[in-house]
Structure formats: structure tokens, C-alpha cells
Amino acid sequence: MPNPLKKDDAYWMGLALNEAVKARGHTSPNPMVGAVLVKGGKLLAKGYHRRAGLPHAEIEAMRRAKQLKGATLYVTLEPCCHEGKRTPPCTEAILRSGIRRVVVGTLDPNPKVSGKGVKQLSKAGIQVKVGVLEADCREINLFYNHWMTTGRPWVLLKAAASLDGRIALSNGRSRWITGNLAREWVHRLRGEVDAILVGIGTVLADDPRLTARHPKAARQPVRIVLDPHFKISRRAKVLRGPRGTRCWVVVAPDKAASKKAREFSARGVEVLACPLGSDGRLLLRNLLRELGRRSILSLLVEGGAVTWTSFIRQKCAQELLLFQAPKILGADARPLFGELGLTRIPAGGLKPYAAEWLDEDLLTAYRFD
Predict the structure, then answer these.
(1) What is the CATH number of the domain that holds 172?
(2) What CATH number is attached to the domain comprising 102?
(3) Beta strands 350-358 and 361-368, pairing class
(4) pLDDT tens digits, residue range 166-215?
(5) pLDDT score, position 4
(6) I need a labelling partner for 182 at 20 to 30 A (CA). Which of 69, 83, 110, 332 fits?
(7) How far is 360 from 56, CA to CA, in rounded Å?
(8) Chunked in runs of 10, what are the mean pLDDT values of the chain (369 residues)?
(9) pTM, two decimal places
(10) What's the first-to-final CA gap in the chain, in angstroms?
(11) What SS3 class is residue 301?
């Protein structure tokens, strides 16, 4: 949080960060950006980018200020300077405004910007400072930064397990391992990601809807099912989402042109072909590249064990969100992960970075090395 006793560049950038995150879940495929205008040590205006296609944060703040001449603009991400998008370049508006100084949290990894915006401002005589609260400014756009630099979405594995690492009883029953607060947390997260994915085993066992059912959910994610052999029932709930939402079923190439695929297409369900590896499993990197081309910046993988294990074996996950319930289900219950084929104990592999109690359940967030 900004320190009100020390109104330096970090303080004002902190206010800009607070603005940026107001749009969490709403801006994809654009980044979250916040802006603050200051003059003589006093706040003139604040603004944030609300949604793709709407004005950028700098413009939102500038429209709220009456006198910009000599002001300082604090913005969490480098102002854009390129044409060919739904909004005009922010650098042009800044140059016309009379703003004297621009403080930038972090550069934009978009190759169309990536330093060009600050260079254009500096060349025009505006004082530019880059790197204030840079780590925080980068962190809020983790999904965007990863997608922009790799072409693939940021993948989060989400799992709920007992203390002994079990996700269901031997008879398949899994409702409910965690409590209400943990499930509400997940539904809110679903509304912040671009897509949610499960394997066909989860669909056949649980028949999930994969929708975001939280009053503060930002939107409904794309629903994706990994189903190489096209076993999904035509009556599966995941196929019937809220109006205007999308569902994609990922199958092996020889199933993509089948009669069933044409039936699904006629119902508005898209069938995507993905090649198989030598083990008969879908090649996830190929799928992730395709999702990236479709502007999927973040992917929440909710199971089951076979699917989580595939993402780990193929090194295709960036994050693990593990919800642990104070329950012991025993060795006859179903495990969290399948076989990994390890012959020695890994040195590291996961780094915890956050933890939170949700009533009696513990959420621990990890990043993969």
C-alpha cells in the first residue's frame, strides 16, 4: 500500500497500481494499467483501463484533469505509441497535453512498444523515469507478459486435496473435499481467467458446468475439454454454457472431421484438433500455441489427476494452486497426481509464494521453476 507520509514517486505509483487492479479480469487480451496525474504534490486525477477497446488509463486520467500543463503522469505500464488498434497512441495525447514528466512502472513487452513509447516522449523533451515499483507493475500483468513473450497462455493448475494428497474416494466421490469459502474463491478466479480446462475423465465422472458462479465474477471463461478419443456425451453440461460463451473440445486429428464433430459445430461447440505424442497423449505445447493465437492469455486447469500429470510431465504449467482440506481419505482413495516416472528426488521444482486460510482449508500458491 502507498505510504501517505512519504509522497514520493513510489507513493504515486502505488496509487496507480491500485487503479490498475480495479479492472482485474476485464481487460484481456490487453494488460491492466493504472494512471495518476500529480501537480505540485497534489493529486489531479486517476484512471484505469477498463476493457479492451475502451480508452487507456492515461487517457482516462487526463480527461478527468482540468489543467495538465507542468503535471507529472504516473503510469504502471509504458504508454503505447503504435497505430493499428482500436485506440489511438497514448504518447501523442501526452505530447499534446503539456505534461512535463512521465514516470513509468515497467516497459511494455509488446514488440510494437517495448521502449519505443518512452523514447518518443524523451525525444520530445519530456522527462521520463522508468522502473518505479517495477516488480509490482510487472506482477499484475503476469498473464499478459507471459503471453506476449512466449505466445502461450499462463497455465495455472488448480487442485483440491486432502492432507494425504487424495482428490476423491475409491468410488470416485469427491464432493466436497474443501469448504464453501474455498469454492467461492475458485469461482471468482474462474471469472478472471480467459479459459478453464479439464480432461474427459472429469467430465465423465462429475459432469461439471465449468462456469464462474460468483456475484463478483468478471466474466465467463472459455470452457475447454481435453478429449483425444472424443468420448464426451452430447448431453454433457459443459457443452451448454450461458448465452454468448464458448466451449472447445480438443480431440486427436483423426476425430476432428467426424460426423460427431460436425454435429458439435452445428451446436456452436468448436472441435479443435491436436496431435498426439508417442505416449498417445495430446501434445500440450501445440495446444497452448493455438490457444495463444486465439488470445487466451490465462488457462486454469482444474483436473483431473491425469490432466494435471500431463501438464507437469510436459512442463507446460507455470503455477499450482493447491487447496488442502483438514481431511484424511486413506491410501485407497484416488491420488492427486499420476505416475511421473521419476528415478530420483527432484531438487526443487516448485517455489511457494503465497498462502491463505479459507476457513479450515489452506490455499498455497506455487510457481514452477
Answers:
(1) 3.40.430.10
(2) 3.40.140.10
(3) antiparallel
(4) 999 999 888 889 999 999 999 999 999 999 999 999 999 999 999 998 87
(5) 64
(6) 332
(7) 41
(8) 76 98 95 97 96 94 93 97 79 94 97 93 96 97 98 97 95 90 94 97 93 84 97 96 93 95 95 95 97 98 95 97 97 94 88 96 96
(9) 0.93
(10) 28
(11) strand
Using omega within 30 degrees of 0 as the cis cutoff, is the peptide bond preceding 176 cis?
Answer: yes
- AA letter at 288: L
- Give a yes or no: residue 1 inside a domain: no
* Paired sense of beta strands 298-301 and 270-273, if any: unpaired
Nearest residue to 239 (alpha-carbon basis) of 205, 217, 267: 267
- The DSSP code for 12 is H
What are the C-alpha distances in Å from 232 to residues 229, 276, 279?
A: 9, 18, 21
From 116, 145, 174, the end of a domain falls on 145
- Residues in the chain, overall count: 369
Is 158 found in the same domain as 99?
no
Q: Which of 58, 60, 78, 302 is catalytic?
A: 58
58: annotated active-site residue: yes
Q: Which residues contact 265 (CB under 8 A, 6 or more apart)?
A: 271
Report d(CA 154, CA 193) in Å as an integer: 10
CB 312 within 8 A of CB 336: no
Same domain, yes or no: 179 and 301:
yes
Helix 9-20 and helix 57-64: axis angle, to 10°?
110
Tell whether 163 and 117 lie within a shared domain: no
- Please tell me whether residue 101 adopts helix, strand or coil conformation: strand
Q: Is residue 4 part of a domain?
A: no
* Strand segments (E) across the chain: 34-39, 42-48, 72-77, 101-106, 127-130, 154-162, 166-168, 195-199, 222-226, 247-251, 270-273, 298-301, 319-325, 334-335, 350-358, 361-368
